[in-house]
Amino acid sequence: MATELNNKNNCKNDDENKSDYDKNDYDENGYNENDCNCDENDYNESCDENNDKSNCSTREAIRRTFYKNRIKWDNIKLELDDNTPQEKRRKLLLEYQKKYRDEAINATRGILQEIQSYDLAENEIEEIEMNEMVEELPSQLPKESRINQMMLSEWMLEIPQDLTENWIMVPCPVGHRTRLVSRMGVTMAYSRKGVLCSVFPSALPGGNPDTALRHSAIVDCIWIKSRKLFYILDVLYWSQLPFMSCEAEFRFFWIHNKFQEIPEFKERNTDTNRYPILSLPNIYCNLDLSLALTNLDNELYPLDGFLFYHRKALYSFGNTPLVTWLKPFMLSEALGISVSPSFNKKPDDYINFEDHIQKINKKNNKKK
Predict the structure, then answer these.
(1) CB pairs under 8 A, 24+ apart, for 1-4?
(2) Beta partners for 320?
(3) What is the pLDDT along the chain (368 residues), one digit of tens a residue?
(4) What span, in angstroms and rounded, lies between the C-alpha atoms of 59 and 52?
(5) Within 13 Å of residue 95, how many CA atoms lie on the same side as its CB?
(6) Could you give phi then psi for residue 296, rounded to 5 degrees?
(7) Domains observed in the chain
(8) Burial annotation 84-111 (CB, 10 A radius, 16+ → b, else e)
(9) Rg (CA), the chain
(10) How far is 343 from 351, CA to CA, in rounded Å?
(11) Read out DSSP for 101-169?
(12) Chain Cα centroid distance, residue 221
């Protein structure tokens, strides 16, 4: 696909096919395939002052289409129709991120700058307990804020051709997706909607008064209310290092190493760590998945589902085919593996995988 983009002679101005801006919590920027057909001889030229894409460089056009055009929250459309194979979109994204990794670095810097410019009011500096009734808490990020924007999964509609070679499975307990941001001696927990849910000390860099206050961290977590702890899913920034431009395999490696090095993460109700922050298992799909599922820690139950990460996936905002999702009862049908009876508890109206996905999509469309 990248070769095809570089060999096109004209950059098409196809405003009719641009992704619609969906005014919801996830207004991330996406890729528009039809806006990327530029002559490589114009590489050093930018689009003219009238924003005429017929006169732009390959790099500029791709930058605009991935980071300027709006996408719908439930899919990275890539300006391909709904019948475009998931595998094709995966290959397109992998090719893109290989060439323009610096855009991910810029995205991380943008979040960090926003964090540094965001000051808590005096009444918010006091510690706030994690609370499910988020609407009663004192602060919410602006809608345009990127602090709470997350990488989200798609349903695994197609089994990846390279599943055993390049994919990592992560079991996810039932809980609430949360973004933890630590800086200046406090840690702030934000919901997916950008609502400030809690302020407390943590062992994250810059997350309590005893750490180096110039350091910061941004991590994605799952909050388990019944156990009052977090499971860390991913890392965007740590200390003074950006990680959005790092591959998923390395991000997971970093998380596990750091959580082994810092025992304070397991502590509870201390001056440096209010809630335990634990890591999740990363199961390579070239292993015996049936055996791996049997050996899962009972503390992870009940499970909400399983995330599957392409090991080379960079962190990006919004839904991506490089991270996919299956419910526990879908594993045997989708992957053809044997699972324990506890994983096979299907909804009463369950017919098959495709029918179930259609019902969920229909339900979600009604909410929009």
Answers:
(1) 1/91, 1/92, 1/95, 2/95, 2/96, 2/99
(2) 153
(3) 434 434 433 333 343 333 332 333 333 333 333 333 333 333 233 344 444 444 445 444 433 433 333 333 233 344 545 567 889 888 888 888 876 666 666 666 666 666 666 555 434 445 556 654 334 444 565 655 666 689 999 999 999 999 999 999 999 999 999 999 998 999 999 998 888 889 999 999 999 999 888 899 999 999 999 999 999 999 999 998 889 889 999 999 999 999 999 999 999 999 999 999 999 999 999 999 999 999 999 999 999 999 999 999 999 888 999 999 999 999 999 999 999 888 988 998 899 888 998 888 888 887 76
(4) 15
(5) 15
(6) -65, 145
(7) 79-130+151-365 (3.30.470.30)
(8) eebeebbebbbebbeebeebbeebbeeb
(9) 21
(10) 16
(11) THHHHHHHHHHHHHHHH----HHHHS-B---S-GGGSS-B--TT-STT--EEEEE--S--TTHHHHEEE
(12) 11
Long-range contacts made by residues 128-134, C-beta under 8 angstroms, separation at least 24? 128/196, 128/197, 128/198, 128/199, 128/200, 129/198, 129/200, 130/189, 130/197, 130/198, 130/200, 130/223, 130/225, 130/228, 130/275, 131/197, 131/198, 132/176, 132/225, 134/191, 134/193, 134/195, 134/197
Q: Over the range 125-147, which residues count as b (16 or more CB within 10 Å of their CB) and which as e?
A: eeebebeeebeebebbbeeeebb
Place of tokens 């973004």: 179
Q: What's the one-letter identity of residue 29? A: N
Distance CA 320, CA 71 (A): 11
